[in-house]
From TrEMBL:
<protein>
    <recommendedName>
        <fullName>Copper resistance protein C</fullName>
    </recommendedName>
</protein>
<feature type="domain" description="CopC">
    <location>
        <begin position="29"/>
        <end position="119"/>
    </location>
</feature>
<keyword id="KW-0574">Periplasm</keyword>
<comment type="similarity">
    <text>Belongs to the CopC family.</text>
</comment>
<feature type="signal peptide">
    <location>
        <begin position="1"/>
        <end position="24"/>
    </location>
</feature>
<dbReference type="InterPro" id="IPR014755">
    <property type="entry name" value="Cu-Rt/internalin_Ig-like"/>
</dbReference>
<comment type="function">
    <text>Involved in copper resistance.</text>
</comment>
<dbReference type="GO" id="GO:0005507">
    <property type="term" value="F:copper ion binding"/>
</dbReference>
<dbReference type="InterPro" id="IPR014756">
    <property type="entry name" value="Ig_E-set"/>
</dbReference>
<dbReference type="Pfam" id="PF04234">
    <property type="entry name" value="CopC"/>
</dbReference>
<dbReference type="GO" id="GO:0005886">
    <property type="term" value="C:plasma membrane"/>
</dbReference>
<dbReference type="GO" id="GO:0006825">
    <property type="term" value="P:copper ion transport"/>
</dbReference>
<dbReference type="GO" id="GO:0046688">
    <property type="term" value="P:response to copper ion"/>
</dbReference>
<dbReference type="GO" id="GO:0042597">
    <property type="term" value="C:periplasmic space"/>
</dbReference>
<dbReference type="GO" id="GO:0030313">
    <property type="term" value="C:cell envelope"/>
</dbReference>
<dbReference type="InterPro" id="IPR032694">
    <property type="entry name" value="CopC/D"/>
</dbReference>
<keyword id="KW-0732">Signal</keyword>
């Protein structure tokens, strides 16, 4: 009986410790992007824009071609929170591109995401 109470108590403590981080993390999502994920464009886009479901601190955004070469578009980390971000793009050659981003939640955790698009 004593062991049963000990196991039950340990289970309750363990469950509360593992459940807490789930509630403390932000449920941020990328709601919209331009170019859109998996877009097949007939001409190069003029801008890159990201719209999130809530205000975030955007700490990194990279744009790379299919060979992994990074395209400079003037990204600088955002110290102020926002849900909307936009940058003017240089002329992009026909290729497949990948956008990768890192945001920081209010509790200090980094969340990452990525998507790709193609310019014909």
């Amino acid at each position: 009986m004593k062991y049963r109470r000990l196991i039950l108590s340990a289970s309750v403590v363990l469950a509360s410790l593992t459940a807490q981080p789930v509630f403390s993390h932000s449920q941020m999502n990328l709601n919209e992007s331009q170019p859109a994920s998996n877009a097949m464009l007939m001409s190069a886009p003029e801008k890159l824009s990201l719209t999130f479901s809530e205000s975030v601190r955007l700490t990194n955004v990279t744009l790379t071609n299919k060979d992994g070469k990074e395209i400079d578009f003037g990204f600088a980390p955002a110290f102020d929170k926002s849900a909307d971000f936009e940058w003017k793009l240089p002329a992009l050659a026909p290729d497949t591109y990948k956008v990768s981003y890192v945001v920081m939640s209010d509790d200090g955790h980094k969340m990452t995401g990525k998507y790709s698009f193609m310019v014909h």
